[in-house]
Design a protein that fits this description.
Number of domains: 2
Largest sheet: 8 strands, mixed
Strand content: 15-25%
InterPro entries: Phage_capsid_2
Pfam families: Phage_capsid_2
CATH class of the largest domain: Alpha Beta
Organism: Hymenobacter glacieicola
CATH topology of the largest domain: phage-related protein like fold
Number of strands: 18
Protein name: Phage major capsid protein
Order of helices and strands: HHEEEEEHHEEEHEHEEEEEEEEE
Radius of gyration: 34 Å
Structural class: alpha+beta
């Protein structure tokens, strides 16, 4: 053990001063005993490194550092909701009405009977309800605002804002998920273990043929090819990454990609999100807030932006209203919450333009 002369001198000084204080009160013998003991203990302590912040031998003074930055919560990508007809402007009511064109006129070749029979087209009033999303209030005390090294109030509002965006996006995806059997496909690849811990039994992987079949359905529905979107949950994206053809330059477009688009497969702009819509074993989509079941399957949703609608608030910030009770006399601080109104639907009642690819459970 290396003896630090600086610490030794400090120990002698501290022992002398303590003996001076103790001797008038408890006597000479006590003063000598306390001083000697303190000196001996100090000498036994390890020498401080040459670059240490302090030369004290008896007590380590630890400095606590609070950074002004903090690790924020992470939220899923919700940019996919921009791929839709936007009904947000002037959103003031509870119900949004959108007319759907009725039947198309018949065509006769080489008409011989005149006058032709005139028919009236009956249009359909399609509508959807606007839901109200609200956050649970958050309380931040004045003491927290004063003592915290980071902007806690700003951080809280950041979380309220992004949690609403996440919830609205999840609700929108559920509103766009098809329920018609003709618009629901099932995966056809090799069997693998499920990705979700709640799922029981193996599932079939996503195969390249599944994407081709989704494109085929939209082609048969005369849906435009340009602008088609496929929202792939992160788990099922792993299936795609294991298909060599999907990662080749011949399938993925090499041009400039659009907002949030990772690549292009069979004419679909690929977008990903941490979670997607779960389908029950009966082929029904589940709200993202619903608890997953053992037989549920994850899904990829394919659509064209002309065939889904959305409405989110009425303002440039996404229609999110912030509520604040500042300097509350009962909370001794500020209370904050947020609200947004949003809704959406598939444009047509026959669900044209939207397809779901669901994990098939292995029997």
């Amino acid at each position: 053990m290396k003896l630090n002369l600086k610490n030794l001198a400090y120990n002698v000084l501290m022992a002398f001063l303590l003996a001076v204080v103790v001797t008038p009160i408890f006597g000479v013998n006590a003063g000598i005993a306390v001083g000697s003991g303190l000196f001996a203990v100090g000498c036994l302590l390890p020498a401080q490194p040459a670059n240490a912040q302090t030369g004290l031998a008896f007590m380590a003074i630890q400095k606590e550092i609070w950074l002004t930055d903090m690790s924020e919560n992470v939220f899923p990508d919700s940019s996919f909701i921009n791929k839709a007809i936007d009904d947000s402007e002037g959103l003031t009511g509870r119900i949004v009405h959108a007319a759907e064109a009725g039947g198309t006129p018949s065509v006769q070749k080489n008409r011989s009977v005149f006058p032709a029979q005139a028919t009236r087209r009956t249009d359909v009033d399609t509508q959807y309800t606007i839901d109200e999303y609200t956050t649970d209030p958050s309380h931040v005390t004045i003491t927290e605002q004063i003592e915290a090294s980071y902007q806690k109030r700003v951080s809280i509002m950041f979380n309220h804002y992004n949690q609403l965006k996440t919830s609205v996006a999840g609700g929108m995806l559920f509103n766009w998920a098809p329920t018609a059997a003709a618009n629901i496909l099932y995966t056809s690849g090799a069997a693998r273990d499920p990705f979700l811990g709640t799922q029981v039994g193996q599932r079939l992987k996503v195969a390249k043929e599944d994407f081709a079949n989704a494109a085929r359905i939209l082609d048969r529905q005369d849906v435009p090819r340009e602008g088609r979107v496929a929202l792939v949950p992160a788990d099922l994206a792993m299936d795609l990454m294991l298909i060599p053809e999907f990662v080749s330059a011949n399938i993925f477009g090499q041009g400039a990609l659009k907002e949030g688009v990772l690549g292009r497969v069979f004419g679909f702009d690929i977008m990903t999100r941490s979670t997607g819509v779960l389908y029950t074993s009966a082929g029904a989509p589940k709200d993202l807030a619903a608890a997953p079941a053992a037989s549920d399957g994850q899904s990829i949703i394919f659509w064209h932006p002309m065939y889904v609608r959305k409405a989110v608030g009425t303002r440039t910030n996404g229609g999110i209203d912030i509520f604040e009770d500042n300097a509350s006399p009962t909370y001794y601080g500020d209370v904050m919450s947020a609200l947004v109104r949003a809704g959406g639907r598939i444009v047509r009642s026959d669900q044209r333009g939207v397809v779901a690819l669901v994990e098939k459970r292995v029997a």
